[in-house]
Amino acid sequence: MSVTLLKTHPLMPNGQVGRDVPRLESMAKVTGREDYTHNLRLPGMLHAKIVRSTVAHGRILSIHTEEAAAVPGVHSVVTCADIRTIIPEPYFGPAFHDQPILADGKVRYVGEAVCVVLSHDPHIADAAAQLVLVDYEELPAVYDEVEAATSNVYVHETLKPAGTFPDLKHLEGKRDTNVALDYRLIRGDAEAAFAQAAHVFEHDFTTQQVMHTPFEPMISVGEPTSTGLTIYTASQSPSFVRIEMARLLKWPENRIRVKTSHLGGGFGAKLYIKLEALAAALALYTGRPVRVALTMEEQFYTITKHATTFRIKSGVDTDGKVIARRCDVWWNGGAYADIGPRVTQKSGFTAAGPYDIDNVYLESVAVYTNRPPAGALRGFGIPQLVWAYESHTDLIARGIGMDPVEFRRKNILRDGRPHATGTVMKDAAIPEVLERTAERIGWDKAFDRGTGTIRRGRGIAIGFKASISPTTSVAIVNVSADGSVTLYSSTVDMGQGSDTAMAQIVAEVLNVPTEGVCVVRPDTDVTPYDMATLGSRSTFHMGNAVRLAAEDAKKKLDDLAAELGLPERSNIPVDQLFKKRYGMQAGNVIGIGSFIPTYKSPDHDTGLSDNVTPFWMIGATAVEIEVDTETGHVTVTRMVNVCDVGTPLNPKVVETQISGAAVMQYGFTMSEKMELDAGQVTNASLADYKIPSILDIPPLMESEAVVATQHSGPFGAKGVGESATFGVSPAIANAIEDAVGVRITSLPITPEAVYRAMRAAANQPLEDF
Amino acid sequence: MADLSTISFTLNGRPVTARIAPHHTVVEVLQNEFGLFGARESCGQGLCGCCTVRVDGDPVSGCLFLAAFLEGTRVDTVESLARGGVPSVVQQAFIEAGAFQCGFCTPGFIMMTERLLEEHPDPDEDLIRHYLSGNLCRCGTYPEIVAAVQLAARRKSEARLDKAS
Fold this sequence. Notes:
The complex is a heterodimer.
Chain A: H1 26-30, E1 46-52, E2 58-64, H2 66-69, E3 74-78, H3 80-84, E4 91-92, E5 99-100, E6 106-107, E7 113-119, H4 122-129, E8 133-138, H5 145-150, E9 179-187, H6 190-196, E10 199-207, E11 219-224, E12 229-233, H7 238-249, E13 256-259, H8 276-286, E14 290-293, H9 296-299, E15 304-305, E16 307-316, E17 322-332, H10 340-347, E18 359-367, E19 374-375, H11 382-399, H12 404-411, H13 430-441, E20 450-451, E21 454-466, E22 473-480, E23 485-489, H14 498-510, E24 518-520, H15 538-563, H16 574-582, E25 588-595, E26 616-628, E27 634-644, H17 651-670, E28 676-677, E29 680-681, E30 700-705, H18 728-740, H19 751-761
Parallel strand pairs in A: 1-14, 12-13, 15-19, 17-18, 23-24, 27-30
Antiparallel strand pairs in A: 1-7, 2-6, 2-8, 3-7, 4-5, 9-18, 10-16, 11-12, 11-14, 16-17, 20-21, 21-26, 22-23, 22-25, 26-27, 28-29
Helix pairs in contact in A: 11-18, 14-15
Chain B: E1 5-11, E2 14-20, H1 26-34, E3 52-55, E4 58-61, E5 74-76, H2 89-97, H3 106-119, H4 125-131, H5 142-164
């Protein structure tokens, strides 16, 4: 197994940015001393066990809590009526205020939180929760995203947009619909171009519902305080939690303190607001600290990744140029919108792919269903789209008899050319990523295609992503009187290495060793606002804010030196500077940085914008595979992942992010799928829901960041955490067709699916069962 | 709930006692009685390896293994490995190879690697992958974990040679 990153990336002058600094918290992580929120114990703390809905859609007729409440050691059993005594309007969510803290007269999916049993002993709470009986009047349910878009089974009576996003306002109060966002993009005249095309191709692709499975299961602890409330939470968005809780409680923000530790994984599961509102309400209701901690199983009932259906149609001219594309994408948002409408729009507008196409018509719709809610998961919808458009791209190339790489090369979107939205591409190394991927896998070289029952194939795929925008990051850099430096930022390190990368930026600007920079964990009483740690936005947004803060501190130190009459570039040690100024070891220099990029929201009618994203992320994958024609089993023997991450701040961490993202997407490609039976997840455990193990991953994995610069990024850098997810699934499907001539159009690619496709292709289809 | 009883065992080299209920797991006792959080529950089914500790030398899943069975045993956790702030060879190799991201599964992988290298001082890649297949890393840091194990094996072997000469 090997991972290699070309060591061609520059080291900055002060030797901090561009260096392979091991994660600052390395010792804590290898010694088991990392202080996850999971570890928190507070005096008098109660444990909450959630009683969950057993039906997919129904009215709650009654909740029988008496027997549970009578169990010795049970503190109380709490329902929505009790929550209302603390929060009269107990509905939360980032895009829609549609999710009740506990079910409010109705349930909309199996696993929805209905009531809570509290005890000082989690085992007592757990046992008593089994004694709560809930009577339902079952209602018809709808699960499929395409069906739900026009079904007369409605998940919500009326739509309740949060008011944060202008493109959702027109949905306020809308009834008799499951569509939570309808984004449309119109560029040129696709219908007219289809009529002129030499070839027209149309395909349908689907992806399955999957789950993040962060290994530190989701946890929030609420604690009443003399001034208000503290929430300790494994959250990727502490600033959002505070603002949303302030809205729910009708309190000023400063009465709510939200603290996070390092997270045991996030991947989008721990975004916006999840368990925090419940933990806060329970703490205020009981007057005691309350710990709401999920099991691995319960995470499957909390947040997932959208299942999708994508119908894609392309018109190609006689030279192999794509002249028209139509995309229709349905996003299965489950019972609560969470951030699904943003996924639908922000990713939706890239659904035509990284290609230069003059005529595009695109519709992307977020749909409510009676499934567990879907939100953000590493890639924010992009992997679902790339799955379809890169499988489709391969099918077109084969259909017109052109080499798949050559076909992509001919149509690829280059800097200086407008993307479908009208935004002119800049600092997007799409052609370079494609070329390096093809070169590394040896696309032009001879390839052993296997013999007998083992057939070999190769596949390639490339995708891109816009950054969510407009979003704000604020950072503070504090230089103490001894010259030591502390960074205050609300970026959450969930394993991606952001603490280390941000410290490297501070250290590069101030010319101090990274290892000596202290990074304060997010704490809304202490660290300034940050929109959230999501969508690979932190390196760019917070990185810029941190750089500005460090430069501000540096300027203030220079000003101080000037004030003291020291010559420019006198290089006097910082501690001497403070001593001269204050007569002793005293004082601080505080640098502040605030960053928000420019942005223009897409036009409501056409979906067009000439400034739709501050930067683009690009990722491509190439694979070599073997298919066992007797079993349908696919073995990926080699995987190459190439990304444009701008200029890496920390090449080693970048390399690990690239391979880690690819491994995660490999699971979503080959094995992971939430199985549902009447809305009930039937494999909500790692025993039955198979994530990749060390035995499953390709024996050869190679990572590369192309030489590139994001000119608006800190030291040329931009986001990296998601880019290697883009190409994995279609590259494997394309390789399967290359090996055995069958096309898989649904994920995951199980041996059964491949075997069935091969039998069908041989006119000997297997019977369904 | 059930009555408490007292158990005695050796924890990271020191004799200890704990008051436990019959249903308490090793992870609960380590966390709640001894403030040791290196072994931690994730899947809750003994499948992910995040809760790995060693009982009389054998790795066990601390989220399933009942504390009552610890009576009279020797228990070693990840916290026993670093001495005086100096990481073990395996821990140091994990740091240098960048063999973790979020770190939640890391103590389990390190405990299994310690045992692997005791049994097989010079493992090939195939053996490493099979030996560690009971531990999962959702961050997908597997290539770096293999590199870390290989680095640790090499360092340990060099140390043995130095000792011999």
